[in-house]
Amino acid sequence: MKLPPLKAALLAALLAACSTSVQAGDWFLHEFGELRSYHGDWLNVCRDKGEGDCRAVQIALKPGDDTFFGESQVTVHVSPDGEFQIEVFQRNMSTPVEGIISFCFDEVCSGIGGPEGWRFGSKDATNVAETFVITDKDVAALTVERMIANNKLEVVHGPYGSEMRARFSLRGVTAALNAIEQHYKDR
Fold first, then answer.
1. What is the DSSP string of 26-51?
2. Sheet harboring 100-105: ordered strands across?
3. Can you give the pTM of this predicted structure?
4. Which of 15, 74, 111, 118 is deepest in the core (most CB within 10 A)?
5. Over the stretch 151-168, which tens digit does the pLDDT of each residue have?
6. What is the dihedral of CA 152, 158, 134, 50, to 10 degrees?
């Protein structure tokens, strides 16, 4: 169906007015000594007043949840040379995970490879419970590309039939990663 020119112009103007792009938030110094900024559903954190490594974080909270880590959390660690490591925390995640770990982007799922591409624990320590980190640089870079290109992320892990699922919004992830890249260039 072809719209008359005036209706087409009005529809285009309405769509432009309703579209929401996430702009980079202002950086501020947090009381923990970290440089931080908000971007949509993501928080950037740079250690040592902005002189240390930076990460983009999203924490999934349930209503009334008062824990620091929430129910689940995804973190994209960004090194100054542009390499990534991706860390996932989920409350009650058993380690070792039985079955496969999959990242689903807008309902399209793919496994992240065998244990050679990831390990249990955090980026800096192996004795962190309920957490795993993607350490393979290529797998992490591909995962970040998919995060930028999609709207939703669901991390699925555990034995078939009783998988655990952690859901995250990708709104703002591009702005967050761009802000970190620019911060590294500016310092």
1. PPEE-TTS-EEEEETTEEEEETGGGT
2. 108-111, 100-105, 152-158, 164-169
3. 0.83
4. 74
5. 999 999 887 778 889 999
6. 60
